[in-house]
Write a structure and sequence with these properties.
The chain starts with a helix and ends in a 12-residue tail after the last strand. It has about 170 residues and is an alpha/beta fold. It is globular, with a radius of gyration of 15 Å. It has a single domain, classed as Rossmann fold. It has a 6-stranded parallel β-sheet. The chain has 7 helices and 6 strands; from the N terminus they run ααβαβαβαβαβαβ.
């Protein structure tokens, strides 16, 4: 799968669906024909992107990760209501979630300094991902993540909302 193919059809940030169904994204079907995702970081940006978009067929959120109990529990409850399911569970530690074999991808909405560490660990488990901007606090972090993504063959999308809108280009 090429990066261009993924970026052309995937991720829906800022009101569009988050990712394509597994059948289109990976060229095959998962046993359940469903893409299992986790939201890591359940604050305002995650709410604006994930909870404000319409439910997308073929997507199931199975984890809402945040160190703050009230946030993760509320987010999981809201995702379950939005998707009319009870599949999403709250977690405090992202490492417990990214190691799950039934997880296909993650959407990272943590505070800025956690973007690269979370993405790096998730990539180590082969999880495809969407990560909000900025990409870390040091270029060396970004380069290390890029190497890891290439080594593991992980599809990565970086959140650059508004940068592709016509009114922001010259």
């Amino acid at each position: 799968m090429s990066r261009r193919r993924f970026l052309a059809g995937a991720a829906a940030v800022a009101g569009a669906p988050l990712v394509l169904p597994a059948a289109r994204l990976f060229g095959g079907e998962t046993p359940s024909n469903t893409l299992n995702l986790a939201v890591i970081g359940c604050g305002g940006r995650a709410s604006g992107v994930v909870l404000k978009s319409r439910p997308y067929p073929g997507v199931r959120f199975i984890a809402a990760v945040d160190p703050f109990r009230d946030r993760r529990e509320a987010f999981a409850t809201q995702l379950n209501a939005l998707y009319e399911t009870d599949a999403c569970r709250p977690y405090a530690d992202f490492r417990e979630v990214v190691s799950r074999e039934d997880l296909d991808g993650v959407a990272v909405f943590t505070p800025d300094h956690w973007h690269v560490p979370v993405a790096y660990v998730a990539a180590g488990y082969g999880k495809h991902m969407y990560v909000e901007k900025p990409l870390g606090v040091a270029m060396t972090w970004a380069w290390a993540l890029r190497r890891r993504l290439r080594e593991k063959g992980v599809v990565f999308q970086y959140g650059t909302q508004q940068r592709s809108w016509r009114q922001f280009r010259r």
